Amino acid sequence: MPKAKANGIELHYEEHGDPSHPPMLLIMGFGAQLTLWPDELVEALASHGYRVIRYDNRDAGLSQKFDGVKAPGIVRMTLMSKIGLTPKVPYTLADMADDGAGLLDALGIDKAHIVGASMGGMIAQHFASRHAQRCLSLTSIFSTTGNPKLPPARPEAMKALVTRPQSTDEKVLVDHGIHVARTIGSPGYPSDEERLRERTTASVRRSFYPEGPTRHLSAIVADGDRRPMLESITVPTLVLHGEDDPLVPCEGGRDTAACIPGARLKTIPGWGHDLPLELVDELADAIASHAGSAAATV
């Protein structure tokens, strides 16, 4: 299992495609492992001519865990943020963006196309701001700006995401994972039951670490409103968002595209907060086309 020292910590990563092709770094979201990027999407991007690199964020999957490091309570953090105070958290989204840059360093890569989903999109936004010279293009997938005036997640979606399983029994964990996937997933593209159970079981067996999401969530809440940062991004940007996303409503994608100069927005009806097999080709084509166009302008 390939691991690399990046930004002072150990990250687990995987590579697909020809090593001589332009690199594309995939950043996954809240509490999620790199395996949440469907193999079919990774293979499709590689077939478009990219060296595709996906990795486990800190505190997720097989990457380094921050055991014993406590995050402040979310209610307290939210109240502090509302009155303009910055809560002290174990690490920030900017730190996690630096992890991605550190991984590129470890792999000897100077520049890459950056693709982030959900919290990974927020991290990718920070990457494009902090490491613009290393970012060939940015694709932000079902992510948002931190604008407090945007519509919130649907209550059932947020509840499913932050509720912990009732035990660590494998069947309980798998059933919980399936419930989360069904609750936040695409109403227009429901997952096949057998495939969803198979993927969820594999994810649970690969890693179960319930402490990581708590610190991830603290990093998101502490990050606040990113609109001023987004307005300074000059990297060619594509924003992809589902019109039926129950966790990060489509307004978040529209706001992201409106804030980043020159950003293009593509929304898809029936798409929720997942990466359905039925959309793999459409998403891969959009991401690869954007990356190719951005590279042509360099």
Description:
The protein is α/β, with parallel strands linked by helices and 298 residues long. Helices cover 42% and strands 15% of the residues. The protein is built from 11 helices and 8 strands. The chain has helices spanning 39-47, 74-82, 93-106, 119-130, 155-162, 170-184, 193-206, 211-223, 227-230, 250-259, 280-297, and strands spanning 3-6, 9-16, 23-27, 51-55, 112-117, 135-141, 237-242, 264-268. The protein has an 8-stranded mixed sheet, sandwiched between helices. The two termini are 34 Å apart.
Topology, pairings included?
Layout lengths: L2 E4 L2 E8 L6 E5 L11 H9 L3 E5 L18 H9 L10 H14 L5 E6 L1 H12 L4 E7 L13 H8 L7 H15 L8 H14 L4 H13 L3 H4 L6 E6 L7 H10 L4 E5 L11 H18 L1
Parallel strand pairs: 3-4, 3-5, 5-6, 6-7, 7-8
Antiparallel strand pairs: 1-2, 2-4
Helix pairs in contact: 1-11, 2-8, 3-4, 5-6, 6-7
End-to-end separation: 34 Å
- Poorly predicted spans: none
Rg from Cα: 18 Å
Derived from helix and strand composition plus strand pairing, the structural class reads alpha/beta
Enumerate how many helices there are, as a single number: 11
Q: Could you say what the CATH topology is called?
A: Rossmann fold
Helix and strand string, N-terminal first?
Answer: EEEHEHHEHEHHHHHEHEH
Mean pLDDT, as a whole number? 95
CATH class: Alpha Beta
Summed up:
This protein has eleven helices and eight strands.
Keywords:
298 residues; alpha/beta; Rossmann fold; 8-stranded mixed beta sheet; 42% helix
